[in-house]
Amino acid sequence: MIHDSEQVVAFIDIGTNSIRLLVVRLGAGGGYSVLSEQKEVVRLGEGEFPGDQLSEAAMDRAVLVCRTFVDLARSFRATEFEAVATSATREARNQQVFLNRLATEADLPVRVIAGREEARLIYLGIRSGIDLGDQTALFIDIGGGSTELSVGTGSGYKALYSLNLGSIRLSSLFPPKDKHGIITQKEYGKIREHILEEGGRVVLELKDYPINRTFGSSGTLQNLAEIAARMFHPQEQNASQVLLCPDLVKVATRLCGLSVEERRKIPGINPERSDIIVPGAAIIETLMQVLELPEIIITSRGLRDGLLVDYMEKRQTPGDHSVRQQSIISLGDACRINQVHAIHIRDLASALFLSSRKVGVHSFGSFEEELLGYAAYLHDIGSFVSFTNHQAHSQYLIANADLLGFDQQEILIIASIAGLHRKKVLVTRGRVSSGLEPQYLRTVQVLGALLRLAESLDRTHIGLVRTVRFLRTGEKRLTLRITCKGDCHLEIWGVEREKRTVQKVLGERLRIEVVREMDGFHN
């Protein structure tokens, strides 16, 4: 029975190899109970690499499983769904086709997350089930299309990485010549060479951290640990909870010499992984040997658990987006923005947003207000590249940044708004970031116009404008009341220049009214 104070939420992880479901009941006091956990192998990334195209058959399988999971979650009275897609989807050229099918055929809106965001969520999921204290740990997750690594303590992460190395990807890139799937040591060596080439820089950075413990998640690691336990430690309880490096090397050598059908019969193996487990073993073996990791502690926690933790943290502290805020601030710091100006523009943009909503210009909510604030804070980061056309540089830098806590569409909305803060106004899709969904075009237009006004109100970068707000003075008529300290003629000149553009976007006639604090004089 679900009480009024409780809520049921479903978390879905659409991976390259499998799709996982977690349904939980959240209590009013911050606790939760698991109602259902499901996993289905769909091989979404099968045949995708290196062409970056999801096959129709793979999409059919994924949509069917997601529809089943949605129905199952609703049978538990789930009212909210948090679904994310990872490597296979984010790299697919036909990504939007797949997302549209999920939305229409499975009634499931899905966020596509970046690799480092995936690593952050995996870190949250694993960390939530262990007591690290001050110890520094390495977290490894081997997926079908990518490998996520993170370094952190009990209080937070220190580094996040995502490598284009996964069991399905490597199986596609390095298919065995033997028709039965036997992999020679030479072929295995080539796979390991590729792993070192792809992950060399990350491995060097990881060596700088004093790693005390290593945790591994994902089906690949669990399978390898189970095989090693059955093969070398059959009498030991819980032997599959730790994977020793020497054991892994022996397991990998044994698996290479077997056909796919022979691998299916190995005690401890999941038969569905028999054709992709060797490349997965190569990734783990390479990381363990190069980083000199004696063992990996196996955990069943992972991305979907991280989705739950992330959701609960936001739920327990409404409005607190610390991960998002810190990500925005870090990008601004990296590009050496004028923080005082950035904060002032953010505050002016917020005032314009709230007052324009109050007088009926738009009906946007907290989601749009938050993204406008981030765009306002970062609007000038393009000056780090060049002041000339810096709005375009800002748009590019934001669109291609790994902003943690955001999905792809949120990042593209922020980038597009920032790209509109000067020069030509948006009238076509040509000025928005590639990949922005059409439904957000009007949002970007309106918020971009508000940001243009905010930028004009601090042309001197000395904060002369104290307050600003829209007032309704008639049908399709607004007054923009500006309160400033001293002579702000450059700011007023800037607003007058933007007046025509803003009127066109908002569909309102605009009158400017200036109040000077020094003498109460009105223009």
Automatic annotation (TrEMBL):
Name the UniProt record assigns to this protein: Ppx/GppA phosphatase
Gene Ontology molecular-function annotations: hydrolase activity
Residue ranges occupied by any Ppx/GppA phosphatase N-terminal domain in the UniProt entry: 23-314
Coiled coil segments of this chain: none
Chain ranges of the Ppx/GppA phosphatase C-terminal domain: 323-472
PANTHER family assigned: EXOPOLYPHOSPHATASE, RETROGRADE REGULATION PROTEIN 2
One family name in Pfam for this protein: Ppx-GppA
GO biological process: regulation of transcription by RNA polymerase II
InterPro entries hit by this protein: ATPase_NBD, GppA/Ppx_hydrolase, Ppx_GppA_C, Ppx_GppA_N, PyroPPase_GppA_Ppx
Matches recorded under Gene3D superfamilies: 3.30.420.40, Exopolyphosphatase. Domain 2, Hypothetical protein af1432
Superkingdom classification of source: Archaea
Assigned keywords, A-Z: Hydrolase
